[in-house]
Each structure stands twice: as C-alpha cells, then as structure tokens.
Design a protein that fits this description.
single chain, alpha/beta, Udp-n-acetylmuramoylalanyl-d-glutamate--2,6- Diaminopimelate Ligase, Chain: A, domain 1, UDP-N-acetylmuramoyl-L-alanine:D-glutamate ligase, Protein-Tyrosine Phosphatase, Chain A, 3 domains, six-stranded mixed sheet
C-alpha cells in the first residue's frame, strides 16, 4: 500500500528527509503538509522554509497555535530564542530538524512519487507549458484520474507539494516545471522522475538569471540531461537552438512541430478565427482531424506537444482527439471574451516574455477581419537583464507592424515600447504611456468602437487582469 495522509506517521518520513525528531511522538499521524501557517489544517505538518522576503521559522509558534501537528525546521535555526519557546510549550510539540528544509521537502516528494503506481509527465519551456500541461491532463483524464499542479505551483516548492497530493487512486501526474536560474530544472526532474519529459520551446524568458538565449536553452535541456534513460523525451522539432543544445546529451527523443520532419505534426491547418483552429494530427502515417475551440496559432504547437506526450504513453488516438476538443482554454492565456457591440477582448494577461508576445501578436493578426481596428495594451516584460531595452523597443515595433490602431503601454520601460512603435511609423497621438490600470481602462473605453478587438498582455507583476476586469 502506498503512503497516504491520515495514515502515515512521523517516523515514516524521517528516513526520506534525513530528519531528526527533537521532540514529540514518532507515532503521530500526519494529515498533510503546509508551508503556510495562516491556512494550516489540524494535524498537518508545518514546513518552515526560508524565502526571499519571509522566513517560515518566524511563524512556527503561530503554526502550532493554529493546530499544526508539528513543525519541520532547519538545524541551524534550532539555537534561536523562538526554538527555546517551542520546547516550553506544554505537551512537547512534534519538532523535526533537517539540514536543508527545501531539499528535504523535495526529497520527501521524490520518495512519495516512487511509492505510487503513477505515470508522470514533466513539462517545461519558455512559453506554452501551462496550456500544454492542461491539454495533456485533459487527454489523460479521458481514461484515468490525473493529478496536475495548480496555478504557479511549478517551482522547487510548488512541484513537491503537488506530488505530495498523490493518492492511490491517481494513475497520472502532469507537472509543469518553471525556473529562473540554472540547476532548477535538473533538480525538479530528479524529484519528479518523469516517464515523459517535454520542452515546448526556448525563448527570451528569465534572461536576467540565465545570461542569454543559450543560457535559457542550457537550463531547459537539464530535463534531457537528468531524465532517466528509461523515460521518453519530447522536443519542439522546429526549435533549432533547442535541438542543437540537446544533441550533445546522447538521448533519443520524439519531435513535434509544423516542419515535415517532425514525428508529430499538423497538416491542413484551418484558422477559424475566434472560433478556434482545426487541423489533421499526423503521426507515423496516421491522420486524425482535431478541432481546438481556443484560437491562437501558438495553440497548434501546444496541442501537438500534448499529443506527442500522450502517444508516448500509448494513449488511443480517440482520447487525444476528445481531450483536445474538450479543452476550453485558460483564464489570462489568450482567452477570448465577447463584449457588447461586437467588441472582442483577448485576455493574455497571465504573463509575457518576448517570445510569447511575438506569437500572440501573430495570432491576433489572424483573428482580425479587414477593416476591424486593433487596440493593443501591453505591460512591461520582466527579468530580461541586458536585453530589457532592445526587447521592449522590438515589442513596440511589432505592435506597429501589426497595423494597430491604438497602442497603450504601462511600466518602467513603457516608453521604450512606445518609441519602438513610433520608430515604425505609428502616429504619436495613437501610442501613449499610461501610469495606472484605471488610466488604461479609461483610455481604452474612449477608443473602443463597434467591432474593435482589444488585446491585453503583460508580465505577471503588472497585474493587467485589473484592466480586463475594468472593461468587463
């Protein structure tokens, strides 16, 4: 029987975490794990993690007060005053000390994964990984119960916490893996031990922590390097830098993409505008018609990646087609919203980097009928390092080349975007910087007319979903 919360005891987690019980009962039954002292449930173990802004150890006493069964702390913290107060609490609360709380969390998740009879899919890439994750999960759910990480639970904290939700009834786990520094994808791969790993693409994201585009490729390729030799790898066959970087790692892989040499590709693509896309899924001489309800040409590649992963798991074609057909899109990721007077709002506010913006603007161009005016509203793109100024200028140029009628930009480098648009011939009275969400909403409303299309995109930190809410 695999381990299960509500049954597993303190003593059973000591070995995988290399932890030492300082106080409390080793037979204490644990109902789960939490890293948030505010929302901890009775019986859960509070895992004290050190972050950039907060140190979980500072909230250890609060976690006990809120009903935690015990706490996991780092050994180097044990001599603090708060630690002494913990021992003075009546009833000797459960305390486990580990060398490194973050590593111990990952080690426990890796052990937990190995105890469950489950197929694991790991997905990374500069863009498209969340949509691909949801598409894969949609396909695998046609046949078996599938676990997937929620929201932004894709890092060295979120992914282990997701794996620790595995139950005996699960047969699949689909995990998105994010990163902004070298070594993170490699560590996440070792924790998840995926049966199939996929890299959607390599693009200009997290450049600040990785140096340049080759640095991004090297970091993503850690999945190929660290994945088990028994596992399968799926790569974007149209991404030359990705293939070149992975080629020295002596692994075999399947490819997906639009090029004819890819193992999984799309033929007879038909753009249906805001109604979506249809195409023929091609694999080893077999063709199946696929209908996507979500628009955006970038979603063809996401669907192909999801199909390639599913084929690695011997998923029947009918489940792939049904799973993709059932996919209804994700809030904040090229989500099409119909407003009164025939106005179309495209909400792509979840995040942005130069690669995803380029793809999105290309898709916007495919949605617009002749004579329909486009309003583009962009927020700043983060973590671009030395590429910040040139990439924001390039973003503005792309907006102008799209034939945009009205352009608004917000953020510290908004002027760079506007200047890029002006350099490409956009009139100065139709390209402006705004300083707040409310100003952006009001200016959009002042320019919106029947049949317009409004496109909004920016990095997560810009919170441009507030603009979408204002327009809705």
């Amino acid at each position: 029987m695999p381990p299960a919360w509500g049954q597993i005891t303190t003593g059973e987690i000591l070995s995988p975490t290399k932890g030492k019980r300082i106080s409390g009962n080793s037979g204490t039954v644990l109902s789960g794990i939490s890293t948030d002292s505010r929302n901890i449930n009775p019986g859960e173990l509070f895992w004290a993690l050190k972050g950039e802004r907060f140190d979980g150890h500072d909230f250890a006493l609060k976690a006990i007060d809120n009903g935690a069964a015990g706490i996991v702390i780092q050994k180097d913290w044990w001599n603090s005053e708060v630690a002494a107060k913990l021992l003075s609490i009546s009833g000797s609360p459960l305390i486990i000390a580990v060398n490194d709380a973050l590593k111990a969390l990952g080690d426990l998740a890796a052990w937990w994964r190995q105890q469950h009879n489950v197929r694991v899919v790991a997905i990374t890439g500069s863009s498209g990984k969340t949509t691909t994750k949801e598409m894969v999960a949609n396909i695998l759910e046609q046949e078996n119960l599938t676990l997937k990480n929620q929201g932004n639970f894709n890092n060295l904290i979120g992914l282990p916490l997701t794996l620790l939700q595995l139950e005996e009834r699960h047969r699949n786990a689909v995990l998105e893996m994010g990163m902004n520094h070298p070594g993170e994808i490699g560590r996440l791969t070792k924790i998840a031990d995926p049966d199939v790993g996929v890299i959607t693409n390599v693009g200009m994201a997290h450049i600040e922590g990785l140096g340049d585009l080759q640095g991004v490729a090297n970091a993503k390729a850690e999945l190929v390097e660290k994945i088990s030799s028994k596992s399968e790898v799926v790569l974007n066959g149209d991404d030359k830098l990705l293939l070149k970087t992975a080629s020295g790692l002596k692994k075999e892989w399947k490819t997906f993409g639009l090029g004819e040499k890819n193992d999984v590709r799309a033929d007879r693509i038909r753009n249906l505008g805001i109604e979506g896309i249809s195409f023929d899924l091609s694999y080893r001489g077999v063709y199946r018609p696929v209908r996507l309800k979500v628009p955006g040409l970038q979603n063809i590649l996401n669907a192909l990646a999801a199909a390639a992963v599913s084929l690695c798991l011997d998923t029947p074609f009918r489940h792939i087609v049904e799973g993709l057909d059932d996919f209804g899109g994700l809030k904040g990721r090229f989500m099409v919203i119909s407003l009164p007077n025939g106005i179309t709002l495209v909400d792509d506010t979840y995040n942005a980097n130069p690669s995803s913006l380029k793809a999105a603007l290309s898709s916007i161009g495919s949605l617009v009928d002749e004579g329909r005016k486009i309003i583009v509203c962009l927020g700043e793109m983060m973590e671009l390092g030395d590429a910040t100024v040139p990439e924001h200028r390039q973003a503005g140029r792309r907006v102008a080349e799209l034939g945009t009628y009205y352009f608004l930009a917000m953020g510290e480098h908004a002027h760079e975007m506007i200047n890029g648009a002006l350099d490409s011939g956009m009139p100065s009275n139709r390209a402006q910087v705004v300083s707040s969400h409310n100003e952006m909403v009001n200016k959009i409303k002042g320019e919106m007319h029947e049949g317009n299309l409004v496109f909004i995109k920016g990095s997560r930190k810009m919170a441009l979903e507030k603009v979408v809410e204002g327009l809705e």
